[in-house]
Amino acid sequence: MGADCRYELAQAAYVKLALHALKHPATAVNGLLVGRLVEPSSSPAVVSVIDAVPLSHHPHHLPLLPTLELALTLVEDHFATQGEGLAVVGYYHANPRCDDTDLPPVAKRVGDHIFRYFPRSAVLLVDNKKLEEAVKGKSRDPVAQARFQIFLKYTFKTF
Question: Best exposed site among 14, 68, 91, 100 by fewest CB in 10 Å?
Fold first, then answer.
């Protein structure tokens, strides 16, 4: 089903998802990752994440399938009109608590749903502890951890 992939996260996407998590530190936040498959024939294939689209900071809104379908459709339509071959390539999530490093079941279901449309989809989980350290200037480590579908192998790099 899956294949080896490398994911490149553009600075704009990285900053957007980090700022979304910082703006709402007491609630779970989530959004879509937008990009394209850059080198499908290479091994590993390269998925370039160009942008992040914040969806919600109220986790009870997103689990509703009609809401998710509408968001996916609107984002896909918006980026399709730009003519750059961009599509939804994944999902990001930040938990409301700093010590919570598990991907919640709803985020896994959203990732599975996106996988149906883009088989090389990724799910990123924002590490709130690393985000807090980065804000304080104590760390320069990436604040998002890759949590991909179980059957995907991955390499993750930011640029």
Answer: 100
Q: Is the separation of the CB atoms in 124 and 146 below 8 Å? A: yes
Element (H, E) at 114: helix 105-117
Asked whether the predicted pLDDT for residue 23 surpasses 60, the reply is yes
CA dihedral 20, 23, 27, 30 (to 10 degrees): -10
Q: Dig out the tokens for 76 from the structure.
A: 């896909």
Spell out the long-range contacts of 117-120 with Cβ–Cβ below 8 A and sequence spacing 24 or more: 117/72, 117/87, 117/88, 118/87, 118/88, 118/89, 118/90, 119/1, 119/2, 119/3, 120/2, 120/3, 120/5, 120/37, 120/45, 120/47, 120/89, 120/152
pLDDT at 61: 53
pLDDT tens per residue, range 95-138: 887 777 788 888 888 888 888 888 888 888 887 777 777 777 77
Taking the model in full, what pTM does it have?
0.79
Domains of the chain plus CATH, in order, are: 5-146 (3.40.140.10)
Rounded to 5°, the CA angle 101-105-106 comes to 110
Amino acid at 54: P
Q: Which two tokens stand for residue 156?
A: 């993750």
> What mean pLDDT, rounded, does the chain reach?
77
